[in-house]
Every structure is written in C-alpha cells, then in structure tokens.
Design goal:
This protein is α/β, with parallel strands linked by helices and 379 residues long. 40% of the residues lie in helices and 20% in strands.
C-alpha cells in the first residue's frame, strides 16, 4: 500500500504543519523524481498528465514509450517544447507547443531535443494546453533541458508523486514566502574584514541562499546592494568567458569603500538555467552562437532568473530601499515588481578581454545592458 503522504498536494491539518507548505513540498518532491528519471503525475481539476523529463529519457526510450502497445492511446504521447527551441526547429509559436511523436524515430527525437542543426521531418504540432505548459515549467524547475514528455494519466497511480499545476505556477512566490534566516556569523574577507554571512533557508529546492552584510549599513538609508547570481566558472575559477568574478570582487570592494551594504549571492547559475545547461550553452557558443542564441537553441529565454526570494531576503535583513549595483536595467524593474524600492543604481564594469568581449557586447546590444562602450569596441 503506497504511503498516503506521497500525494502531499492534498494533505492538510497536522501533516501539513509538520511538512510546511504542501504545494511547495509537492513541487520539490516532483523535481527530485524528475531528476532521478522517474515520471510524476500533474493535475489541474479533472485533468491529469503523466510527465517525464525528456532530458533524463533520451530519444530511444521516448520512442519506446510512443510505440509500446497498451502504454498509451495511439498518438497521445507528446513532447512539450518552449517557443525558443521551436523557432530553432522552424516552428514559430507564441508559446510552448505539443509535438506529436507518433511518426518520429529515436534518432529524430534526439535531433528535436538537442541537435544544433536538426534534420527532422516536418513536426505535427499544436499549441500546448495550460496543463502542458505547467509540465514544461516543472521540468525547468528541475534544471533539466526544457522539454517535457507527457501522456494522459488514465488512472490515479499510487506510486507516483502527484503535484497540482497551480503549485508549479506559484512555486517561486511560495518559496519566497517561506524564506527565513537560519544562521549569521562573522567571516572576514580579503576585501572586507568586517563581513557577516547570513544563510537563508526556504528557497527553491534545497538550495540555501546567502547574504553578505558588510560594515554596519543603516536600515533607514538606502543600502548599497549587489545581487550576484552564482557563477562557478567565473567566481571560483576565474573564467575569462565572463566578467562575473570581477563584478563579485568589485562589488565587495565598493561596498567596503562606501562604508557598508549588502551582497546577495543567489544560486541562479547561468542566468537561471543551471550549471549543466550553462555548459551546453558554452558548447553552442564554441560553434558560433552568441550567448542569447545559445540559450534559445536549448529552449531558454534570455534570462530565466527570478527575484522574489531576493526581495524577501532584503526585507528580512531590514532593508526597505537600496542603491543597486548592476548593468542590467531589467533587474531593477524585476526587483521593484517584488516590492523593493530601488532609489538609484551604479554600474559595475569588469575587465574586458578577447574571450568575453563578444559576450559583453551581446549583453549590451541584445539584452539592453548598460555596456555601450564595450559594444562599440566590436564595431
């Protein structure tokens, strides 16, 4: 007999108090299942789908699912792809689409999923339903390639995690609501001896977030603030492909020089696509794609980051207004959407080298970053 708490999306009362927000927990559990290569059941009212991550299956297994007698009604298994990936396949859609897999071989499916220059038959497709779009979002929350295999859920599978689509669609906001400070401790840094690390729990998945409070900033005044998305290659290893490590250290130095402030170090690698997909995008850049197009080939938008958790972290630290260090105007508006009062901003210009000049120019020309002088170097 399956554990009743598997379907945590329906649990309330005492069990919910033990486990916290039931909807958020159900998404976290579903994310774990998808990353292990197991399907989950996604529901919205009377509708239900079995959802798997194409990234964890591959073309051969997906083709087997599509052709196994009795597995599912003929032609009902589909692949949900986002608009950026569809455009690369020659399909112009305003949003995600359901691609019919009935006539595709395993080789074709692999081409649809990953090939840079796909050579596939004309794909039968239709606009994804709202539930199918939620399936795609769930796979993205798992930091897997944005491609979801779906088929009708013909029964209530007791062995599958069940998650409600509404919990998927509101996952980031739910996670931000539950953020709390777990630990504070002094950690002297080479650029800022008077630094306190503040660890937050309750963000997306199991990823704790960190704030570094430098000096003794006055909560009644705008706090000089840097939102820095984690970059393993740049921050830790000094990669020359980006300017992230430079920006990180420059921000700490600037906050120290101005008497104090806060740096939020957010686990949003690769502009929110995760380390593996960032490496995939780097490989595409080696083949001639710029940073925006490389993400689009994989199925991502120009920036997949979200900032509700950042807003919650600042509120818990007691900062209601900030001066933001950024080259990205969209980051300012995104923070303001989550109730942060951004009263001013400062640019952070890292070192330009032959390996990152095109990357920085692309951010200026195609993403609107305030790097005009670098963009002009490419002309």
């Amino acid at each position: 007999m399956p554990n009743e708490d598997v379907k945590i999306g329906t649990v309330d009362g005492d069990l919910a108090r033990w486990f916290g927000d039931a909807g958020r927990l159900s998404v976290q559990r579903a994310v774990h299942e998808l990353r292990e290569g197991r399907p989950v059941r996604l529901v919205a009212g009377s509708e239900a789908l079995v959802v798997a991550a194409a990234d964890m299956l591959g073309g051969e297994r997906i083709a087997e699912w599509a052709t196994t007698p009795g597995m599912t009604p003929a032609g009902s298994i589909g692949l949900i792809l986002p608009a950026p990936r569809l455009r690369h396949l020659g399909i112009i859609m305003p949003g995600p689409a359901h691609v019919n897999l009935a006539d595709l071989t395993a080789f074709d499916i692999d081409d649809v999923l990953m090939a840079v220059k796909p050579n596939v038959p004309l794909l039968a497709h239709q606009a994804a339903t709202r539930l199918e779009a939620s399936a795609l979002e769930l796979v993205k929350r798992a930091y897997l390639l944005p491609a979801a295999v779906v088929l009708p859920a013909t029964e209530d599978y007791g062995h599958m995690i069940t998650v409600d689509a509404s919990a998927v669609d509101t996952f980031h906001d739910r996670a931000a609501r539950d953020v709390s400070i777990i630990q504070r401790t002094r950690v002297p840094l080479s650029e800022a001896e008077d630094a306190e690390f503040v660890v937050f729990r309750g963000g997306e998945g199991l990823r704790d977030q960190i704030a570094i409070v430098i000096g003794n900033p006055d909560p009644k005044k705008p706090a000089l603030t840097r939102l820095h998305s984690a970059c393993l290659t740049g921050d830790l290893f000094g990669s020359l492909k980006c300017d992230c490590g430079d920006q990180l250290r420059m921000a700490v130095n600037e906050i120290t020089a101005q008497g104090g402030g806060v740096l939020l170090y957010l686990d949003q690698e690769g502009r929110g696509i995760g380390l593996l997909n960032k490496m995939r995008a780097y490989r595409l850049q080696e083949m001639g794609h710029d940073t925006v197009d490389a993400d689009a080939v994989l199925g991502y938008g120009p920036d997949e980051r979200r900032y509700g958790i950042a807003g919650a972290m600042l509120a818990l630290l007691g900062f209601t207004q900030i001066t933001l260090m950024t080259n990205n105007p969209e980051k300012i508006s995104a923070l303001e959407d989550f109730g942060v009062n951004v009263v001013g901003h400062q640019r952070l210009i890292g070192n330009v080298n032959p390996h990152n000049q095109d990357y920085l120019s692309t951010k200026a020309i195609r993403a609107g970053h305030l790097l005009g002088e670098i963009a002009r170097l490419r002309k």
